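Person: Please work through this fold.
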Amino acid sequence: MKKTILFVVLSLHLLFSHAQTEKADTSKTLDSIIVQSFELNKPATFSAIPVSRLLVSIADFSNKTSLVNGLNAVAGVRMEERSPGSYRINIRGSSLRSPFGVRNIKVYWNGIPVTDPGGNTYFNQFAWNNFSSIEITKGPSGSMYGAGTGGLILLNNFEGYWQPGANLEYNTGSYNLHNIFTSAKFGNKDNRSYISYAHTQTDGYRVQTNMRRDNFSWQTKWSKEKYELTASVLFTDMYYQTPGALTLTEFSNNPKAARPAGGGFPSAVNAKAAIFQKNFLAGINNYFIISPSIKNNTIIYGSYAQVKNSAIRNYERRTEPSFGGRSVFSWRKSNPQSDWNIIAGAEFQQGYFNTQVSKNKNGNPDTLQTNDDIVTSNLSIFTQSSIDIGQSWSVIGGISITKTKLELTRLSSYPVIAQSRTYRNELAPRLSMMKKINENIHWLAAVSKGFSPPTVAEVLPSTGVISTYLEAERGWNYETNFRFFLLKNRLKLELTGFYFKLDEALVQRRDAGGADFFINAGDTKQKGIEFHADYSKNCFGNIISKFNIRTDFTFNHFRYGYFVKGTDDFSGNKIPSVPSTVFTVLADLYSYQGIYVNANYYTASSIYLNDANTAKAEPYHLIGCQLGWKKREKGPYRLNIYAGVDNLLDETYSLGNDINAAGGRYYNAAPKRNFYIGIALQWLKK
């Protein structure tokens, strides 16, 4: 096995990168990448904020069977899929408090908050063709984006060169997988529109893992001399079954099995365990130039989520309407010696949720157990100043104050009493700087504070016990970063070290029935090193037209500080859910004849599954590859035909473990070796 892995890693120097498939040479690519996080709007090569950026497009050669491979290529980021449609995203350990879904990470789509006022993000509502780029900032971003200690994800459209046209793509594969992606661009650079539709369905690898998702998006942008108005709409209707976690014995004997009956609870099959989910998001973004030096960007939006969750222990129904807005004023003064920018703004969100929990009778709601109205709001006011001194220094300083309020009224208990909790006056500062030592070496340093109150799902977990006693997480993050641009900018190296001290860390627990609840765990000490390298070269000989390779390495030293609960002392233990080391390689090779090959390699060390460190998931190695042919011609049509395989080594592993689960039910098996084929047709207007 070691020889096989070594051979594959060396061979990958002749293969593909999922994340970035630009046709320009690397120097032009780096210069043209504009960082949008923290309102920088400047080239990535002169950004004082360490940002990871992925470019995605339906016309690219990327593997579109899952979002997992692309995001897992980023050092410090780990995306998990417990079953098709059930995602979890971990940025530097942020999944510690997330049994499923995305929490403690702020997500925006075209500037619109996707993270709802309750702190939850339905990341599974997105399809590949809903955005053209993903921008990831790791660690606290509260100085401009409200509460949160995990990180920031910006999903953007309308980037890069605009050309009207249409795309249609279909792929099919193992486990009865069917994907359809279609989109159309029309208009011009001053009045452009984009419409997309995506359909995904699969039977899944395990029993009780059927999934279906239909996704529609529409974005339009009108530009004039002094203003730019953007409207965005996203609608998703999806259904996915939830098989439940297995014990180690069950996982070893039959990883495809769903959770069996036991402990007075039905099996996942008999309970018809599944989630029915509908999401609607719409927003308007108005960018207005007030004067040559003063600008304003204002967003208003509304969203609605309807979720029905047929679980092993109960049947939950949630309706979650919310609305909000964000407004940022900026002032900029530039001269040959310096560039000074000051911004100030606010973000407000309000939600009116209702959650009803009933007994589950063969996949249908039975006797009502609890009925809760939840009113949640958060307000963040922020300001930031940045200055670039010549071409050598860039300094950014910002601070915000956040207030979060949560009020729960249990309508199913008499007398009806409202319980509330307010988390207020939490200052979140950030200071970062970049020194351009020379054209090839840049040094960055940053310090920031994070503040993250419990989400609605944590205050009102699936046990039904209202937990307003939970405290907010808070902590300081220290980070330094070195960037090297070599070989005429074709080779980029990036080395990052960080230390994050988190107090009152929220930790997940799970009872025998699979219900989640949470506790505060004293403090955690999270240290890490991240390394990134990518190389790209055009015209590599007479046959090869382009060659890319990218590698990322992550080392995590995450430990509990003082953590004692009752008679259990977990102080000094490794934090569960996070591998100590992760290594990825992505590579691609293109020929002048249109043939291309791409591949990815991913390996993660063992992962502890409970706070006591008595159970762990074993290390695993994943290899995927794709072979395709893209017809290149001078006309308006492009044809792309491809075939690929994932998990080439046929590994048995768990992707999306249930942390601290009662009875040792930790494991959610990922698919074994699987195949796919696809065809894409593109028409571009001249």
